[in-house]
Amino acid sequence: MAKKVGRRGHKNQPNQAKVIQNRRARHDYELGDSLVVGMQLTGRETKSLRMGHGQLRGAYVTVKGDELFLLNGTINGTSGVPLDESEQTRTRKLLAKRREIDALIDAKHQGRTIVPLEILTSGRYIKLRIAVGKGKKLYDKRQTLKKRDETRAMQSAMKARS
């Protein structure tokens, strides 16, 4: 059985979506509802993200004027897709509807933080999932860890009984 050949003569490969996550976000912030927004990228950045070469550690969303921007989001180049040092961590504009932007700006004025959670590469466009969060204090983090440990202990006790 022959492989299907795409438009430009490339073999169609199963498109495995690479999700780039900010794992520290849920640990450091109490998050509210999430929102999926678009990102303004170059072609080389898009290709690198589709291969899974990106990072959201230390990234955050800021408001300039009436627009949203992603800062410190790193996109690493590969051997086939070289990216300059300045291109890797450049400021990227986020694309959202006006009422969504206004709601995020209001939350920002109330002292909350807009946190990037993950980069979604599954569809035609590359999207960014963001959420409004409130920073946790050290004792809040300890309480969260304590609750998680208690829940695991209860679940293991329930399995032991069964």
Question: What does this 3D model show about the protein?
Answer:
32% of the residues lie in helices and 30% in strands. By secondary structure, it is of the alpha+beta class. The protein has a single domain (19-156), classed as Small Protein B, Chain: A (Beta Barrel).
Structural shape: globular
Fraction of residues in helix: 25-40%
Query: Mind telling me the C-alpha Rg?
Result: 20 Å
CATH architecture group name: Beta Barrel
Q: How can the largest sheet be summarized? A: 7 strands, antiparallel
State the low-pLDDT regions, or none: none
Percent strand: 25-35%
Give the count of structural domains. 1
What is the CATH class?
Answer: Mainly Beta
Gap between N and C termini, in Å?
49 Å
Main sheet: strand order: 1-8-9-2-7-5-4
Instruction: Give me the secondary-structure category.
Output: alpha+beta
Pattern of helices and strands:
EHEHEEEEHEHEEH
Name the descriptors.
single chain, 162 residues, alpha+beta, Small Protein B, Chain: A, 7-stranded antiparallel β-sheet, 5 helices, 9 strands, 32% helix, globular
Q: What is the fold's blueprint, element by element?
A:
Layout: E1 19-21, H1 25-28, E2 29-39, H2 43-50, E3 54-55, E4 60-64, E5 67-71, E6 74-75, H3 85-88, E7 92-95, H4 98-109, E8 113-120, E9 127-135, H5 138-161
Antiparallel strand pairs: 1-8, 2-7, 2-9, 3-6, 4-5, 5-7, 8-9
